[in-house]
Amino acid sequence: xxxxxxxxxxxxxxxxxxxxxxxxxxxxxxxxxxxxxxxxxxxxxxxxxxxxxxxxxxxxxxxxxxxxxxxxxxxxxxxxxxxxxxxxxxxxxx
Length: 94
What we know:
By secondary structure, the chain is of the alpha+beta class. About 25% of the residues lie in helices and about 35% in strands. The chain is built from two helices and four strands. The protein has a four-stranded antiparallel β-sheet with strand order 2-3-1-4.
């Protein structure tokens, strides 16, 4: 079963989101974050963000969670306010 790591952040400016997007474009994900997909949601007025990472299995989730939890605060979008693990019940896409 797929798993999702959902992280919420406060204090995320539009400039910071644009900076992160530039940094991530053209770069491969690190081996220690084996997420199959990453989705970043941003509310610019509230300066809040949600980052959702999808992992194929528990081993990949654990590896990614350990690496992401150890990240320096300056490498995150803003102030991390929560980290939650979810089972992916189902997904739909066009």
